[in-house]
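hiii, so i know i said id send this last week but things got crazy w the move. better late than never?? heres the sequnce for the chain we talked about at the cafe, plus the structure i predicted for it. fair warning i was half asleep when i ran it
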Amino acid sequence: MSIPQLGIGTFRLQGEVVIDSVRNGLEAGYRVIDTAQIYGNEAEVGAAIAASGVPRSELFITTKIWIANLSKEKLIASLKESLAKLRTDYVDLTLIHWPSPGGEVPVAEFMAALAEAKAQGLTRQIGVSNFTVELMQQAIDAVGAPAIATNQIELHPYLQNRKVAEFAREHGIHITSYMTLAYGKVLGDAVIQQIAARHHATPAQVVLAWAMQLGYAVIPSSTKRANLDSNLKALDLKLSDDDMAQIAALERNERLTSPDGLAPAWD
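okay and structure toks below
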């Protein structure tokens, strides 16, 4: 199993908005959909998928276990609830959304429960999200690096998260970039715009292509069909070594997601 390069995210999308986004995405040709228990939209995502007529076998669906459900008593039961909402017998990938605050639930406990969910056929692959190097090592100690498909982290030109990405690469763990466009902040960057102009591409296409050329998966969200269509074209954009070097130089450790009481001690 592998992690597809490009999918659609559903963070912050609710009700008819998320239904429309998923429907439009599937019509545009996307087959990867990323959701989470805490997003409160799994049922709507499931409804949109069911209405699309796209065979389940063609889809790659990811959900994430919320911190309230990390204990061995709750994790599998909560995932079964997610499957019911998503109207599927399994998901392709299940992630631990955030590490347990203050280590309340040990990494070894929730990773073992996640591995058991996989053994039961509830999920095809398992992984983590928002994990530091130290936490990734604990997850590896618990279930082994080959069992961990990905670490989904904030990663964009202004926060390139190289320490975590390098550690993951060394252990054969894929990186999934979320907020790849930094809430749109990087789209106005002069360097990005100049590269886009050279390639007759959009700034978003450039940034997505940059992340994918580094080997990362990306899951941008959009409520607009035109943007969904446009983002897909990033798959065909090939950036030069000079382009990649210019974007690498934009690193400024600008983290946009670090919730109080939830975020670990970042690398």
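btw The two ends are 28 Å apart (CA to CA). thought thatd interest u
miss u guys!!
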